[in-house]
Amino acid sequence: MPSAGAGPGGAEESSSPGKGPAGPPGADTSVPAVGRNWPVGPVGRRPLVLRGWEPPATAYGRGHRGVDLAAAADAPVRAVAPGRVSFAGRVAGRGVVSVELTDTGDPPLRTTYEPVRASVKEGAEVGAGDVLGFLEPGASHCPSSCLHWGLLRADVYLDPLSLLPPWLLARGPSRLLPVIGVPR
After folding, report:
1. 41, 87, 121, 159: which could join 98 in a potential S-S bond, CB 3.0 to 4.6 Å?
2. Average pLDDT, 10 consecutive residues per value, the chain (184 residues)
3. How does strand 67-70 pair with strand 94-101?
4. Measured in whole angstroms, how far is the alpha carbon of residue 137 from the centre of its chain?
5. Residue 163, φ and ψ in degrees, nearest 5
């Protein structure tokens, strides 16, 4: 399983990103770190990654086209970066929200979140940290409740962790340490 800091696959970039499955999924290494928060969990705390991004060897091969993040049922699901809701509805019986990210190129990056009971409508503008909906109970493919978080440019899947800057990927809970030897 890739680590939380794993890049978007390490594959060579396609000469025509976004033009369909010309190369292996995840080939686009130009993902800007525009994320400002995790999509689930307490603000500022890194959720447990239950399953990492596993790009398939071929465009239609087996793999895991996103990451699974541990979260409680009914937990709020937040936008990781600003954008416009491009889809909020049901796909194959699951609630899905997709957000087209602002200023991320042409075609733009798109994040997906599932299973989510949407509280936003298609076309709504959202900011980083805005609540998109709530994690649906019992609709998970994980052994416990989780959010499947994905990232695409056109129809090419990328590692969603690549959206997050290193300081956010590494951040754990803050700890206060005693100050010793400082004059009052």
Report:
1. 87
2. 38 33 43 88 84 83 87 95 98 95 95 97 97 87 86 92 84 63 65
3. unpaired
4. 19
5. -75, -20
Query: Where would I find the H helices in the chain?
Result: 166-170
pLDDT at residue 145, as a whole number: 87
Q: From 138, 135, 113, 139, select the one nearest 126 (Cα to Cα).
A: 113
Structure tokens at 169: 């990927």
For 84, the enclosing helix (H) or strand (E) is strand 83-91
At 68, give phi and psi (nearest 5°): -105, 125
- Structural Rg of the chain based on CA atoms: 17
Task: Please tell me the distance from the alpha carbon of residue 134 to that of residue 153, in angstroms, as a whole number.
Answer: 25
Cα diameter, the chain: 65
Report d(CA 89, CA 20) in Å as an integer.
24
> How far does the chain reach from its first CA to its final CA, in angstroms?
49
- Global pTM reads 0.75
Q: Residue 17: what pLDDT?
A: 35
Q: Tell me, what's the pLDDT at 126? A: 98
- Domains of the chain plus CATH, in order, are 49-170 (2.70.70.10)
CA–CA dist 122, 90 (Å, integer): 12
Which among 142, 151, 22 has a CA at the least distance from the CA of 94? Answer: 142
Give residue for tokens 């994980």. Answer: 142
